[in-house]
Amino acid sequence: MAHNQDGNHKEQVHYVGDSRVRANRKKMYPPDYTEFPHKSEAFFPDFLLKEWMVAAVFLVGFMTLVMAEEPPLGDIADPTNTGFLPVPDWYFLFMYQLLKYKWASGPFVVIGTLVLPGILFTSLILAPWLDRSKERRPSKRPVTIGLMLVAIVSVCALTWAAEAEHETQLESAVGSPTKNKQIVDANSEGHKLYQENACIRCHGEQLQGKNGPPLLGVGNRRTAEQINEYINEGKGGVMPAGMFQGSPEQQKILVNWLMEQKQK
Amino acid sequence: MLRAIYDWVDERLDITPLWRDVADHEVPEHVNPAHHFSAFIYCFGGLTFFVVVIQILSGMFLAMYYVPDIINAHASVKFLQNEVAMGAIVRGMHHWGASVAIVMLFLHTLRVFFTGSYKHPREFNWVVGMLIFFVMLGLGFTGYLLPWDNKAYFATKVGVQIAASVPYLGPYIATFLQGGDIVGAQTIARFFALHVFFFPAALLALLGAHFILIRRQGISGPL
User: What is the nearest CA distance from A234 to chain B, expressed in angstroms?
Assistant: First the structure.
């Protein structure tokens, strides 16, 4: 060190009070806004009051939601319930949906669990270092903005796809909730045919659904043609074809009886 | 009277600079929704914090009734919702607030992203914000199990299965999350501890850092 060869010259250091902070250390002040001199105002109470106005509008909307929609609470967790369709909360759906695609599941599951979410979140965290230009306006940084838009659209599309798929599955699911538990016209010929055939084993004694979906209210959901088709050809790769062993006349009675199963 | 009390405390503790520093800092026009209606996008961060406060307060009240074990959890939530005065409202605030918090956080992140506010010198605050995002997702995941209904149980089971499919580390993560080999009694106790102690502590620390940084560096200028 050229300027300090003799070793005697020691710089006098002054500290602030009894701390080790040097007295002449430059203090870092938050920037003031004189560079854009308009109607800037003090944070408290002036600005906070205006922000509170926005928050009040927000709060009204929020409490309206809270009072309109009671938070759902299902039946107590039953690990033996094999028919329950699991679904994560909506903000995890996009990652959940990824794992349903062939190229991101099975032997490639690591793509769905680590690679894609990893790329997404790592590049988000590193955004300040990936996008180093001084430019801040969106129109001046098309690549960054473009990538973000692609990410947003993909996440939305995946979430939507997951939701749509869940809805479809729910429709044919086992044990979906029904309000009315009464069998319509329980003494009819149709009910007898239902009990005598294999139907009852999967759809339950009370039509409540067992290994198959419940048939309570099936008259609201299906047409007679659809029911005939399911009986003859099976459904969804789960219900086998030809489970009904009776004559065509009997099948007609059964279908008519099923169509009577309507709920309000 | 109040003035005298304040002066008495201030004389001993010198508290005026503490809050004056926060109160007096200038807020520029371009983020003020009173001057530009479109500036409401700059309120998303504040609103996210507002929802977090709602979550903390409602969560504190839920904890007065909630019992974190597999026998009583569901019954205690049911009791809270159906029998306790205002129980449905408080639980509703916490339930919907969780979703709204994620939405507001997402909007705030997008605002910061599209206005390029994460750039020099605010890189570090962006990273802190992303960590807050992960903590919030953690809070969502752990909170989802606590009512212990079928939806909660099976969602957690699937979540743990997905975590378990991660190469090498997967089984360890699954064991850590479950506190054993299955989603059961250990899991709910563990998720409860994570949800009400670990994650909120991390969240408050990160929020503190977030606010200190934005106070130091100031909000980014107009585009």
Answer: 28
Decide if A54 contacts B47 (C-beta within 8 A).
Answer: yes
**CB-based contact A76 B149, cutoff 8 Å:** yes
- Determine the pLDDT at residue A205: 81
Last residue of a domain, one of A171, A200, A227: A171
A54 chain-B contacts, CB cut-off 8 A: 33, 40, 43, 46-47
Query: In the structure, what pLDDT confidence band is assigned to residue A154 with cuts at 50, 70 and 90?
Result: very high
Q: Are residues A166 and A193 in the same domain?
A: no
- Cα A154 to chain centroid distance, Å, stands at 14
Q: Give the range of the structural domain holding residue A209, as residue numbers without chain letter.
A: 189-259
Strand partners, A41: B27
| Rounded Cα distance, A212 and A174, in Å | 5
**Closest partner residue to A66 among B92, B167, B216, by Cβ?**
B92
Nearest to A41 among B26, B144, B221 (CB): B26
What is the per-residue pLDDT across A45-63, written as a single tens digit (0 to 9) for each?
A: 999 999 999 999 999 999 9
Which A residues 100-159 touch B at CB under 8 Å?
Answer: 109-110, 113-114, 121, 124-125, 127-129, 131-138, 141, 145, 148, 152
% residues pLDDT > 70 (chain A): 89
Report residue B28: phi and psi, to 5°: -70, 160
Give yes or no for a contact between B181 and B175, defined as CB atoms under 8 angstroms apart.
yes
Question: What pLDDT does residue A66 have?
Answer: 97
What's the pLDDT at B204? 98
Encode pLDDT of A11-32 as tens digits.
Answer: 788 888 888 888 888 877 777 7
Instruction: Assess whether A238 and A209 both reside in one domain.
Output: yes
Q: Would you call B76 an interface residue with chain A, using a CB distance cutoff of 8 Å?
A: no
> Is there a single domain that holds both residue A162 and residue A199?
no
- Phi, psi angles (nearest 5°) of residue A40: -75, 150
Query: How large is the ipTM?
Result: 0.94
Put simply, the answer to whether B88 touches A110 (Cβ < 8 Å) is no
* Joined tokens for residue A261: 């199963």
Length of chain A, in residues: 264
Domain spanning B43-217: CATH superfamily? Cytochrome Bc1 Complex; Chain C (1.20.810.10)
Question: How far is the C-alpha of B29 from the C-alpha of B6, rounded, in Å?
Answer: 32
pLDDT surpasses 60 at A207: yes
The one-letter code for the residue type at B113 is F
Task: Give me the number of domains chain A comprises.
Answer: 3
Q: Is residue A227 part of a domain?
A: yes
